[in-house]
Design a protein that fits this description.
- This protein has 528 residues and is α+β, with helices and mostly antiparallel strands.
- The strands form two sheets. A four-stranded antiparallel sheet has the order 3-4-6-5.
- Helix 3 packs parallel to helix 14.
- The radius of gyration is 26 Å and the shape is globular.
- The C terminus is likely disordered.
- It catalyses: D-glucose 6-phosphate(in) + phosphate(out) = D-glucose 6-phosphate(out) + phosphate(in).
Amino acid sequence: MAPVPPGIRFLASFNRDQWYRAFTFALTFLLYTSFHLSRKPISIVKSELHKNCSHVTEAPTESSSSRQPALHPELDCSWKPFDRNNYKQLLGAMDYSFLCAYAIGMYLSGIIGERLPIRLYLTVGMLTSGLFTCLFGMGYIYDIHSLGFYIFVQVANGLVQTTGWPSVVTCIGNWFGKGRRGLIMGLWNSHTSVGNILGSLIAGYYVSSNWGLSFIVPGVIIAAMGVVCFLFLIEHPHDLKIASTQNSAPSNQKLHKSWNGVNGHKDLYLQYKPGAKAQSWDTELLLGQESIGVCVPVQQVVVVKSEAEPSAISFMGALRIPGVVEFSLCLLFAKLVSYTFLFWLPLYITKAAHLDAKKAGDLSTLFDVGGIVGGILAGVISDKMGKRATTCAVMLLLAAPTLYGFSMMSQFGLGPTIGMLLVCGGLVNGPYALITTAVSADLGTHKSLKGNARALSTVTAIIDGTGSVGAAAGPLLAGLLSARGWDQVFYMLMTADFLALLLLLRLVMKELRSHRNRPGVAVELKEH
């Protein structure tokens, strides 16, 4: 008999649960990649909405020996209404409308998501997000020049996109425990940068010829992924147990309900009796999305639903979890920096390096590549050290001087610019990635919750919702400050970076004290 190939032996070593875990990891990765893919086009298209193609003529001045160019904005080939002198403020208002709606909706999204089936909630969000993303692109096809139209589309899209993050983090948190969570979440969170890169490439391909397709194509992609989500997403490992129990139930067995007291709580039991016709198995077994089915072969009993099942956590209850407030406020400033780069980096490169929109978009993807590496490194280091807050603080401390160096990009050559984009992307996105994934999952499964896993969606929404307030403010401030010069924007980013660092100092000191005698052991924040 021929020997079994090593690759087959490796694949055979995985059990069914491991296969489903890997499948859920890959599927949720692709789902949220499509979310970021659909957000990126606006930053690429900005330089097309206001193009550097004004006609220039020579106008005489007081000195006959000198002449200066005179711009004729009425002859500009930009897209109305972004052809005005205040175009940066108008573009900033579009960013702000999306991100402000996203921030407000995020606080509600987690609470709603805990009370609805995640698969359906996420599917509806992705389909409607695809619709509104395509609507923005339709503005080009139907020659729409109303600022109100674009603002409305951005607000609507911001609201429906809030369905994404709490849902996928809850899913991945259900499937993966705390062991090596930083590494797993760091790898998984690279979907943010992968989506930004793909969004930049797709939008850049169409931006010069038909910028409407820069939105329509990503809109179709996220809608298609919504259908995939509906067909294949498995929310929790318990869902597999329920499905296997349902499939293995003999068709000639009758179900009898009985109540029994276990540990002071009443549980509903279904007993099988051979020889009778099965009745209403689906309705009785699946009494709700959160129902738990446990098959006991010896006693032939299935626990369907317990009256003592933990209820969804309240907003104030989530805030009382130790560390939630500090990390939420830190993320506010960290996400301010990250999203300012997300929405304004291509335009800055266009102005500073004098490149066209496509080349600037391609070059900006290096920032996202650095973000992938930074997120993974942050996860690995925090796992090894057991210090999430300290890892974030060190990266924030290093990011500030890097931001100052990045502000001098126009004075560099291509080589140093590429290196600066990679380093800056890693240091800016590392803390952001760690807080929104591993830290959120840690806090959402904190021991003070006593096993109530339903808190994860609300905790994630609070942390990311607070961060989204900063994400809304950053691009808006960048639009206002850039009119005075891009150096003002970078001073704002460095200030935000230092504030994020200051907000973590209490947790950093707690980690250092806790690990003085127990290095490498994860810190469990205590209630206060």
